[in-house]
Write a structure and sequence with these properties.
The complex is a heterodimer of chains A (115) and B (115). By secondary structure, chain A is mainly beta. Chain A has strands spanning 3-7, 10-14, 19-26, 31-38, 44-50, 56-58, 64-68, 73-78, 87-95, 104-105, 109-114. Helix content of chain A is 0%, strand content 56%. Chain B has strands spanning 4-7, 10-13, 19-25, 31-38, 42-51, 54-57, 65-66, 76-78, 87-94, 105-106, 110-114. The chains are: A mainly beta (115), B mainly beta (115). Chains A and B meet through strand 5 of A and strand 4, strand 5 and strand 9 of B.
């Protein structure tokens, strides 16, 4: 079975500052990893995914994440926060087969961007 | 426009009164799933369907039913709702069970309150 832990249920950054949202996973087999974003009153949208190719993955809206097997981490970063980045972010993991059925979500991190 | 449509967006009901939340996708996706989202718990899978007439329990199926008579529709049925089913519900779909090449598409959610 796999699981994912997001450290920090709430993160606040100033506009223009670095965004770092932390995600650690556990999986008995090589995982597929995802970051989703949820804007207010909307469903989840895929930000980026790791599927065993390049360990540094670039996503939409300037976000990127690095898969570090030795640290079992998949932290999400963005060099400069924008007000429009305020949302809830979910890390998710599934088996290397990419099974949607096995997709497990973290508890989410609410990002606040301060002016 | 490719989308997953859920209705209603908001629903307030009383304990024991049967209700149905509809979900429809226009992308000819095989895989569909229902999740509930609760604060601090992330998204938890209720039921999923690999194809027409093929449904199976997720992680939290108690108190829910689903059906998949047509490829595009996947309604969620609460036969006798209880207050602990107050939650935000999401329907999602994917072209196939493999998320490496086919991301999950989410509806905008249904906020259910059971009094």
């Amino acid at each position: 079975a796999q699981s994912v832990t997001q450290l920090g249920s709430h993160v606040s950054v100033s506009e223009g500052a670095l965004v770092l949202l932390r995600c650690n996973y556990s999986s008995s087999v090589p995982p597929y990893l995802f970051w989703y974003v949820q804007y207010p009153n909307q469903g989840l949208q895929l930000l980026l995914k790791y599927t065993s190719a390049a360990t540094l993955v670039k996503g939409i809206n300037g976000f990127e994440a690095e898969f570090k097997k030795s640290e079992t981490s998949f932290h999400l970063t963005k060099p400069s926060a924008h007000m429009s980045d305020a949302a809830e972010y979910f890390c998710a993991v599934t088996l290397s087969s990419g099974s949607a059925r096995q997709l497990t979500f973290g508890s989410g991190t609410q990002l606040t961007v301060l002016p | 426009e490719a989308q997953v449509t859920q209705n209603p967006r908001y629903l307030i009901t009383v304990t024991g009164k049967k209700l149905t939340v509809t979900c429809s996708q226009n992308m000819n996706h095989e895989y569909m799933s229902w999740y509930r989202q609760d604060p601090g718990l992330g998204l938890r899978q209720i039921y999923y369907s690999m194809n027409v007439e093929v449904t199976d329990k997720g992680d939290v199926p108690e108190g829910y039913k689903v059906s998949r008579k047509e490829k595009r529709n996947f309604p969620l049925i609460l036969e006798s709702p209880s207050p602990n089913q107050t939650s935000l519900y999401f329907c999602a779909s994917s072209l196939s069970r493999g998320l490496g090449n086919s991301p999950l598409h989410f509806g905008n959610g249904t906020r259910l309150t059971v009094t």
